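seq/struct pair 1
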Amino acid sequence: MNNLVIAVDGPAGAGKSTIAKIVAKKLNINYIDTGAMYRAITYKCLKNNIDINNEDEIIKIAKDTDIDFRDNNIYLDGQIVNEEIRTMEVSNNVSNVAKVKEVRYLMVDVQREIGKRNSVILDGRDIGSYVFPNAHYKFFLVATPHERGTRRHKELTEKGYEVSLDEIINDIIKRDEIDSNREFAPLVKANDAIEIDTTGKSIDAVVDSVLSKINI
């Protein structure tokens, strides 16, 4: 790989997207939120009343969908859907879509193609273990379910959603189980990844920890 590739993995709510975005800006490289890709497919399925448990229908939708990243915006069939993919309904269903092997094949092809064109930092569940096993730097962010749930609850309430903290924590635990136990490319820490526990740490402290390991 001629371009710099940085992988940031970890469970839902560990701070991957927040940290990766800041690191991308500081290093002047492209940021790719891979989880947003699966959220976009999920959003489209829900919008079209597709049974989220019907893998054949999900695959059909995924094959007929155009997803792209430009200027830190995610485009679904040519439309920016940054906010639409962050609802609780999408969060509750995205793991069921992301576990479909054929969908992951499609999204991974897109991710690898972007990585060939530009220096990138990508966050997700399987970037360092599967998508870019030869990434130059790999990080695995973790935090307690309560910490991750509290962050997500704050984010949603600030956007005007009425959700209970317990509901969000339970959803996060459920997503961890689905993501870790899926048959294909599960959530797993790559052997050569640097683990950072973000529990109780400020964003700046985590960013500094990541940057201190990167030599460019």
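seq/struct pair 2
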Amino acid sequence: MIFLRYESFRSYLRLYPVTAAIIAINLIVYILDHFVYDGALLDKGLFYSYKQENYFSLEEPWRYVTSQFLHLDLSHLFFNMFAILVFAPPLERMLGHVKYLVFYLLCGIVGNLFSAIADSATAGAGASGAIYGVYGAFLYLALMKRSMDPDSRKTVYTILIFGILYSFFVPGIGIWAHIGGLFAGFVLGYAYDWYMIKKSKRRNHP
């Protein structure tokens, strides 16, 4: 079961420095925004796109990234950080630190882009687009590869079923950010797998 975490705190930091940094940045930003800056960081950094203003966030493109590190309330922060804490480490180990960071940010960006495409007036913040990208990569592995153990595969299917249902039936959830992140994670998972297969073939057949 790849999603069970047995590491000590020190080992976790050493093995998964990017995941640990992402969690730390989210926590620090939340504390500063809610207890020091009175919501100013959220105001300046959330993603929004209106036809009359900042359409597709082209006027303020940094919001595609900054919104991934901002959260609306404590429960929003807690559930997202728990998901990253548990599910992201195996992917960071598989991709490597730099590729994983690029993957994470790209999935969040695509999630925001899907929100702008699907809704002419959208606004939101949170790490869930990137998190669903992580789920998307594992969905690719669960469906297309035989290397994932059965318990991990069942966990991926279960978390996605409940997550999608929750996204549809609970108001205020950025469903298109979730779908966009999931799509990006699946496609990037396929692309990485294709690249590794090609690389292996070139190595074995010079």
